[in-house]
Amino acid sequence: MIGQLYITIISLTLAGNAYCQTSSSSPLTSSSLPTASTPPLVSVTSKLGENITLPCRLQSGGSDVFGAMKVTWTKVGQNGSENEEVLLSMGIHTSGKFKDRAYLVDTNAGDASLVLTNISMEDMGKYHCEVQDGMEDIVKHVILEVENGTTEGVVFPYAPHHGRYNMSFDDAVQACSSQGAVIASFEQLLQAWEDGLDWCNAGWLDDGTVHYPIKKPREPCGGAISSPGIRSYGRRNKQKSRFDVFCFASKLEGQFYWLTQPDRLTYDEAVQMCKDDNAEIAKVGHMYAAWKLEDYDRCDAGWLADGSVRYPISRPRKNCSPTEAAVRFVGFPDKKVKSYGVYCFKPY
Fold first, then answer.
1. What CA–CA distances, in Å, run from 7 to 4, 12, 15?
2. CATH assignment of 153-249, given 3.30.1950.10, 3.10.100.10, 3.30.360.10, 3.30.565.10?
3. Which residues of the chain register pLDDT less than 70?
4. Alpha-carbon gap, residue 83 to 68, rounded angstroms
5. 3-state DSSP assignment of residue 13
6. Which pLDDT score is estimated for 141?
7. Which residues contact 236 (CB under 8 A, 6 or more apart)?
8. With the C-alpha atoms ordered 288, 294, 295, 299, is the resulting torsion angle positive or negative?
9. What are phi and psi of 314, to 5 degrees?
10. CATH for 251-347?
C-alpha cells in the first residue's frame, strides 16, 4: 500500500514538472488565445448597367425546412453614414435605391447570394451578408467594385411623338429600348453635362429619379441667376408621374448611313427602301451614336424609325446648325407625305 502511494506521488510530481516546463517554454500570449473569426471577404467587379451576383453560401447546403433560412443583406455605411438595408429574405423585402433591383438566387438550396441589377456607381462599396439557418449561421462581407463608365456612348433626351411629359417610368425604359439605347444612369447624365449637354426638359433616369442638365442658366430652367448644374426632381412615382427620358446609346455595331436615292419618300417608302438595301431604317440612338462617336455630319433631314425627322451636324455652318454641333429635330411630320429622305442602319 505504501509502495503504491509512493509511486503515485512520483507520477504526479513528474506530470507537474512536465506541465511547468511546457508552460515556461511556450508561454500563453494574447495572440495565441482563440479569437472570434473574421467574416470572409471577397471582391467582385461590375461595369455600369450590368447585373452582378454577390456570393454568400452555406457550406452545408441549408436546412431541409422550407423557408427556415433568414437572410439579411446590408450595404455598410462609409465615413460615419448609416448602413443601408438592401434585402431581408423574410418576405423578400427590398427598399430605397435597391427596390426592384435586388433578389436572392435560391435560399432553398442554401444559396443566399444577392443579385443586383442595373449597377450604378453609387452601388460601389462593402456589403454585409448574414444568414441564420438554425443548423448553420454565417456572416460574410463582399466588396463591390464598379468600373467607372469606360463604355463609349452618348446621352440624349427623348420624347415620343405624342409630346413631352407623357411617359411613366416603364414607358421611358421601353422608349429607349425601341430607339437602340438604354435608359441612362445619373453618372452618364453627369458626364454628358460635363461634356456640354444643356436641356431644359426633365427626364427619367434608370434609378427612378428625374433630372435635367443645365449649362446656361435661364429663367424657364430653374432661374437665370441659378448656378449651372443638374436640376433634380428627386425620386418620382414610377406609375403615376409623367416625364421625358434620357437615353444612353453605345458605340455602333454596324453602319449608319444616308440612303442616296433621287426621290422624297413617305415613311412607309423610307422603311421599304432601307429593307431593299439589306438594312433597316435607323433609330434615334443610331443617329446620336454616329454623330457623337463617329463625327457623322449631314445636312439632309431624313426619316427615322420612330417617325421623326432629324439630321446630324458635327461641323456647324450656315443653314446647318450654325451655332453648335447637334442632332437637329425637325418634328413628327405626316407619314403619308413625300417630304424627306431616309437614314438606314446595317448591322455588322
1. 5, 9, 12
2. 3.10.100.10
3. 1-40, 60-68, 79-80, 90-95, 107-108, 148-151
4. 25
5. helix
6. 92
7. 169, 204, 208, 209, 210, 243
8. negative
9. -100, -15
10. 3.10.100.10
pLDDT of amino acid 3 = 46
**pLDDT for the residue numbered 83:** 86
What are φ and ψ of residue 226, in 5° steps?
A: -75, 165
Contact 329, 156 (CB under 8 A): no
* Angle in degrees, CA 43, 49, 52, rounded to 5: 35
The residue among 104, 106, 148, 105 whose CA lies nearest residue 123 is 148
Q: In angstroms, rounded to a whole number, what is the distance separating the alpha carbons of residues 133 and 61? A: 10
pLDDT value at residue 34: 38
pLDDT of residue 79: 61
Q: In CATH, what class is 41-147? A: mainly beta
**CA proximity to 247, closest of 174, 296, 318, 330:** 174
> Could you state, in order of their start, the residue ranges of all structural domains in the chain?
41-147, 153-249, 251-347
Contact 119, 51 (CB under 8 A): yes
Q: What is the pTM of this model?
A: 0.61
